[in-house]
Design a protein that fits this description.
CATH class of the largest domain: Alpha Beta
CATH superfamily of the largest domain: FAD/NAD(P)-binding domain
Shape: globular
Distance between the termini: 54 Å
Strand content: 15-25%
Oligomer: single chain
Structural class: alpha/beta
Number of helices: 20
């Protein structure tokens, strides 16, 4: 197996924090208006909006590549998506690019054009424990026909009504409650917010998600298709707020897309554009601490002792890392004494290679969801206070070669990833380094029994990511899905995006508002940029507004 070219943004286009032996590397700058810590999508979005507003931005990343939880990596000479695999609302990527000076990529094309953005159709192939399966088609009429053929005419018509309801929910909810900054419950007392809240109440959207979907869909199997997204929110459908049905609208209603070259192309495209627009992007550049002087921020100190002076800092790290970076702040000690944060379940992801000829007998879909029979029990097992491994696994199989064979098939081998939800480290501190290989084999055996004949014998496992993998990468409780979106950790009750008492320190990413997923973290980056602008004022010299910092 030959090693393909790695298309990730690297030191040839970005700055490497440690000077190379030949002097080719470039250090992070000594000064900036704003330092953004972390080059995941939230950090890239924050940097894009701030750069476009005229601020001098230094974006620093401890890893050797941009992307954070949305990356495409080379493993054993083959390409794998090692983070998020579902791209919805690509217009938010376009908005991020448009926030800078020209809104164009380095080639002068839009994001969709530069990466050959492809619609995934069907969005998912779903197979149930009783052998029933259905394609979740992108086209509404095709999906209704598929549902009718599998579940009957009543459910086909019910899907149409549910789809209209989900679209209305998105229209009411997204702009008012997701795509905006708020400092607390009182900020939702304006006329627009009150009207939207009354509309949500009249729609019944504040009931538990399972109850909301049950009003439309009678077949328990089909309800899973519109509620499994609660896994991303970290709460069982029976307990998740019904407003999170908007996630089902994002993927099933609005469609899922795929960028040529893998999911990592999203971050690569934004980063390349930032460099062209004059933003400093430094890889392999870990931060040791944020410099705090009373109630103001002075910049950051890097792990090698160098300092970047700045008037504001955006932190995209998970809560434990953020608190370590902010250890000089008295608020950091108060935060450690706060009520316990409840985290989402985690996942085991098995990355492997299989011969093309063997894989041809399997479902030829980009995303396949295999539901076990004991769906409600599964959520109890992985979200309970004392979590356990799934006794009847539900799994996600990702085959990006179905959308991009040029990237994900090499020398007759196809890259395949299998995701198995599991408890986080808070609820089940399992010895994953020892457990993961055996558990991966159990997962593959389950797949072999459910239609993936031979996968248990012939998949060459090249990497297993598990809760300890995520924990070592700085993710709270060993989960890539951050804090769970229960009622008490949603909207104004989620960790705010301004550090208490220091308005120049702003937060972004999945641990703060609005939450988990590619669209929310892109939004969080923009919201963080608004917070910074409120503190610093215009990059061209005006003073901050009276509402400067916000936050609590």
């Amino acid at each position: 197996m030959n090693t393909p070219n790695d298309s990730r943004v690297g030191p040839d286009t970005l700055h490497d924090g440690a000077p190379a032996a030949d002097g080719a590397g470039h250090e992070a700058p000594d000064t900036a208006d704003v330092v953004v810590v972390g080059a995941g999508l939230s950090g890239l979005a924050a940097a894009a909006h701030l750069t476009g507003s005229g601020y001098r931005v230094a974006l620093v990343e401890s890893a050797p590549a941009v992307g954070g939880r949305v990356r495409t990596e080379t493993i054993a000479g083959h390409r794998f998506d090692t983070g998020a695999t579902v791209l919805t609302m690509p217009e938010l990527v376009e908005r991020t690019l448009a926030a800078t000076t020209t809104g164009e990529t380095t080639t002068g094309a839009t994001f969709a054009e530069s990466v050959a953005l492809t619609p995934i159709d069907p969005t998912y192939h779903v197979r149930f424990a009783d052998g029933t399966d259905v394609d979740i088609a992108r086209d509404p009429e095709s999906l209704s026909a598929n549902i009718t053929a599998t579940f009957g005419e009543r459910e086909g018509q019910a899907h149409k009504r549910l789809r209209r309801w989900l679209a209305d929910l998105f229209d009411v909810e997204f702009d008012t409650f997701v795509d905006r900054n708020a400092d607390g419950v009182l900020d939702y007392l304006d006329a627009t917010s009150r009207g939207a809240t009354m509309r949500l109440l009249s729609m019944g959207a504040l009931a538990p998600l399972e109850m909301v979907i049950r009003r439309f869909i009678h077949d328990e199997r089909l309800r899973r298709v519109f509620t499994f997204q609660a896994l991303y929110a970290g709460v069982a459908p029976s307990r998740a707020p019904g407003v999170y049905a908007l996630i089902a609208h994002m993927d099933i209603g609005m469609g899922v897309w795929y960028p040529r070259g893998g999911m990592g192309a999203i971050a690569d495209t934004i980063a390349e554009h930032l460099v062209r627009e004059g933003c400093s992007v430094s890889l392999n550049t870990p931060v040791d601490r944020v410099i705090v002087r009373g109630d103001t921020v002075g910049g950051v100190e890097l792990s090698d002792g160098r300092v970047i002076d700045a008037r504001a800092v955006v932190l995209t790290t998970d809560t434990p890392v953020t608190e370590t970076l902010m250890r000089e702040s008295t608020a950091a000690r108060r935060r450690r004494r706060r009520r316990r944060v409840h985290h989402s379940p985690s996942a085991v992801v098995v990355h492997g290679l299989v011969r093309e000829d063997l894989a041809r007998s399997w479902p030829a879909r980009h995303h396949t969801i295999l539901f076990g029979d004991a769906w409600a029990q599964t959520f109890s097992e992985i979200t309970g206070r004392r979590g356990t491994l799934m006794s009847d696994p539900s799994l996600l199989i990702t085959r990006p070669a179905q959308s991009d064979p040029a990237t994900f098939v090499r020398d007759g081998y196809e890259s395949i990833s299998v995701l198995a939800p599991c408890p986080n480290l808070d609820s089940a501190d399992l010895p994953w380094d020892q457990l993961a290989p055996a558990y991966a084999r159990e997962v593959l055996a389950t797949l072999a029994d459910r239609g993936y004949a031979g996968i248990d014998e012939h998949l060459e496992i090249v990497r297993i990511d598990h809760p300890l993998t995520w924990s070592r990468a700085g993710m709270s409780a060993g989960t890539p899905f951050a804090a769970a979106h229960r009622y008490s950790q949603t909207g104004p009750f989620r960790t705010p995006n301004v550090w208490p008492g220091i308005p120049g320190v702003v937060l972004a990413g999945s641990s703060t508002v609005p939450g988990v997923g590619i669209p929310p973290v892109l939004v969080s980056g923009r919201l963080a940029s608004e917070r910074v602008a409120a503190v610093l004022g215009s990059a061209h010299g005006s003073q901050p507004s009276s509402s400067a910092a916000g936050g609590r």
